[in-house]
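Blackboard transcription, Thursday session:
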Amino acid sequence: MKLIWLLKRKLCNYFPFRLYQIYIRLKNIFSTPAFGYCSASTQIGYPFLATKPKNVFLYEYTRINPGAKIIIYTGKFKLKKYSEIAYGCTIITGNHTPTVGIPQYVLGHSHINDRENDVIVEEDVWIGANVTLLSGCHIGRGCVIGACSLVNKEIPPYAVVVGIPARIIASKFSIEQILKHEAKLYPFNERFNRDYLENLFSTYYKEMRSIGVDSFDI
Ligand SMILES: CC(C)(COP(=O)(O)OP(=O)(O)OC[C@H]1O[C@@H](n2cnc3c(N)ncnc32)[C@H](O)[C@@H]1OP(=O)(O)O)[C@@H](O)C(=O)NCCC(=O)NCCS
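(Written on the board underneath:)
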């Protein structure tokens, strides 16, 4: 490992390698990244940065607004159907492990002892502007993540969370509204049933308000 690192360091200062780095940067700017999966219906706003597009999976009817940064080394990022990420969000799947004898300048580049965990966003989630999703976080179906929040753990389905670290302040819908909503969005076998939702609400949303409404004004 040390040998590879030394080799990399030598190469980094070698002129053709610098040219190669410039070529890679230009390629990233002007070409569509080769994602692990990106549906034809996905919309991506630029500027957009993904350090490892092949580990990024963007499913049907998803949208990433401009300014997103997906910083990945070995982890994966999955954005499931109907979900949207607002402007300026950051997704990070890794953590460096401070290691005796290795300066940060080297550690950050070599990824020695890194810990990586996938970041998963389930269906129909709204991630507000400038949110940060950290390594290992898993956002349940239908959640709302308030602007500028930081999420670093599991968030239950239909939660509205805000702050750093994000905490639950409400549910997105009531149980009745979720049943109605899911009947329109998902085939029968993908829907949450009433028993599951009652259990969810008694665990996480006791005496909390829900923020959704039943219909829209035309
Ligand atoms: C999460 C959100 C939807 C909640 O909206 P809401 O139901 O109207 O919530 P309220 O404004 O009544 O706020 C409820 C509480 O949460 C707090 N809060 C709301 N949003 C917050 C946020 N993003 N960060 C920290 N706290 C927040 C409020 O200060 C309030 O706290 P209090 O009860 O102690 O006074 C909204 O605040 C939000 O962040 N929206 C995202 C907007 C966005 O990013 N749009 C991008 C375009 S797609």
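Lecturer's comment: The mean pLDDT is 91.
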